[in-house]
Design goal:
Pnp Oxidase, Chain A; 7-stranded antiparallel beta sheet; binds flavin mononucleotide
Amino acid sequence: MKYTYRQMPEAMKGTFGDFSRSFGFSWKEFVMSVPSPMFLVTTFKSNGRPNACMQSWATFTSANHGNGFYAILGSVNKSGHLYQTLHEKREAVINFMSAEYHAACMATIQHNAFEADEIAAAGLTVKPADWVDAPMVRECFMNLECKYLWEKEIVPGDDHAMVCLEVLGAHIDEAHLADRTGEQGLLYNIHYQIDPERVGKTAHDYAGVLIKKIDVGEY
Ligand SMILES: Cc1cc2nc3c(=O)[nH]c(=O)nc-3n(C[C@H](O)[C@H](O)[C@H](O)COP(=O)(O)O)c2cc1C
């Protein structure tokens, strides 16, 4: 038997999954949850201080007939530092953390002042990127140096924008060269899954790792 949802389930009304629309979340995100990769995007602010912004409404794709690899940041808040710095510098680094550094990367959110070095304030180490004017996070096992390509509002007039970054190149820790998934691999954001028939009183997020399940074989 399948339950069917087109309107917000009655049991969700007045709960976190309802009022979090004011933070930009549709109730459907919690009922139809699809985990997505989690990473820290680093840029330089106009005062030269490093900025760090957790992102997870995101995916990656090849395009341009296989000649390029691109990050699609699906929904970047236009009033945040990331959006502002991307417009100023048009360069950024995408840093992937293993579970070990999840807490430190999350701590950047508590150090979001314009004057702050958001990477150092979270107990992480800044390393200048090689090909772009942006900081990298040394503790993150993979850093992708990127250039801003374009942006588009999903719905005209939206307060968030979909941003496309071209991945120029990568730095990958030797321990992750053979496999960037598994227990020490990249994290996925499992954003508060609501059981629409049994709605809890508080929200609860998880960060997940990817475990290989099916061997699709060589080709
Ligand atoms: C797991 C996680 C994922 C996030 N994903 C996004 C996202 O996709 N888009 C966004 O605008 N903010 C996202 N945020 C919120 C920003 O990281 C947060 O508002 C941050 O402080 C903004 O930093 P900034 O002012 O440097 O841009 C996410 C936060 C967390 C914890």
